[in-house]
Amino acid sequence: MMKKVVKFGGSSLASARQFKKVGNIIRSDKARRYVVPSAPGKRNDKDEKVTDLLYQCYDAAAAGTAYKKILEKIKRRYEEIIEGLDLNLNLDHEFNRIEENFIAKAGRDYAASRGEYLNGILMAQYLGYEFIDAAEVIFFDDNGGFDAEGTNKELGERLEHVERAVIPGFYGSTHSGVVKTFSRGGSDVTGSVVARAIHADMYENWTDVSGVLVADPRIVENPEVIETITYRELRELAYMGASVLHEDAIFPVRKEGIPINIRNTNRPEDKGTLIVESTCRKPRYTITGIAGKKGFCSINVEKAMMNSEVGFGRKVLQVFEDYGISFEHMPSGIDTMTIFVHQPEFEEYEQSVIAGIHRAVEPDFVEMESDLALIAVVGRGMKATRGTAGRIFSALAHARVNVKMIDQGSSELNVIIGVKNADFEDAIKAIYDMFIMSEM
Ligand code: ASP
């Protein structure tokens, strides 16, 4: 029998109504055997996530200030769902224990994890699946780092004989029993770790959008959904700001070659986005996606005969390293090299870095430009297609966007373009129109 791990995000589990949609989704496919829930999220724009309430409540309790109202609010969120689903379940006992542990200062991670823990109990009861506390099967070392291999072994053994189970997302425990969480959004990681341990055929990640979008919907109106994307393409896009999955959710499944399917709980008929290691499926458009970030600055170092000075680049980069600044890109000419860095990270050390470069390589001059944006045009389809770069730049020229920097990785998987912050949105729209609208 096929095995699927299904992870549901907070908005998919924010109310009884959402739980019912989730129940229908799980029951409509027998392969959906292992369920990883998040904590209840926002029911509307003004609502609060249970995880945030738990942090607030714990901080208040640990500081010895009033916390009971917040705890009540959290309790009501669960009771509302229990009533709406007509479940015969009472969480009083659980809440008493949580309160005791808060007062005993059990830690912020413990506090935050209770959102998933309680939702897991609820979900297991609703589905009639076994509940497995993540603290018993997901492990962290004493420094808080995730113990991937220990977890994989324990989880694999535990689930081998369990046909259907609910494993709450986001947390686990150290070997000495202290509850630890992944970083925010970490239920994605739990889903991926479970999928690896049971050798799943598919990891379905259910959320409130119909997949990964070609471009940011705040910039492009109603962007298309990407049908199939490779892990590498996704990483490029995510790095450049497209928010899809928790970054650490890729590695466990990638290792095992398990595809991830991003799906929409509110539109289960949509196929969503399939994330795979590699594919011979042609992308629908030449490019797979566009993403970008504002807030970079460039430092241009010029020196006659730089090209023949061995070690020049290293010495310049060493200065950045000394101040703990990571660089993003480094396009270069014969007698120039330009370093792109994150503006906020750089500003603090600006003058020291410039002085350091003068000392290290005695350049003819150093020039800086701030308020730049980087845009990544990503697509495995670019490799085989002539004229992609030509089309990108003619789209930008038509939109009257001046290009500050161009960088095409040798993988031919992406083209990175530097523009002024002020041109960022126009540039993305122009590229989107050129590839998506005209290839439709
Ligand atoms: N509930 C946690 C958070 O809000 C984890 C998750 O939803 O994935 O970050």
Evaluate the radius of gyration.
25 Å
Bound molecules: aspartic acid
Q: State the low-pLDDT regions, or none.
A: none
What best-fitting shape do the alpha-carbon axes yield?
globular
Extended strand count = 17
Strand content is 15-25%
**SS-based class:** alpha/beta
The helix content is 25-40%
Describe the oligomeric state of these chains in a short phrase: single chain
Number of helices: 14
List the strand order in the largest sheet.
3-5-2-1-8-10-11-9
Major beta sheet, specifics?
8 strands, mixed
Distance between the termini: 38 Å
Q: How much is the average pLDDT? A: 94
Describe the structure in your own words.
This protein has 440 residues and is an alpha/beta fold. It has helices at residues 16-27, 50-62, 68-84, 92-103, 108-127, 148-160, 187-197, 231-239, 250-256, 312-322, 343-347, 350-361, 388-398, 424-437; strands spanning 4-8, 32-37, 130-131, 139-140, 165-166, 171-174, 179-181, 202-207, 228-230, 260-264, 273-276, 289-302, 327-329, 336-342, 365-378, 405-408, 414-420. An 8-stranded mixed sheet has the order 3-5-2-1-8-10-11-9, with helices on both faces. Strands 13-14-12-15-17-16 form a 6-stranded antiparallel sheet. Bound molecules: aspartic acid. Aspartic acid binds at residues 10, 38-39, 49, 51, 115, 169-170, 184-188.
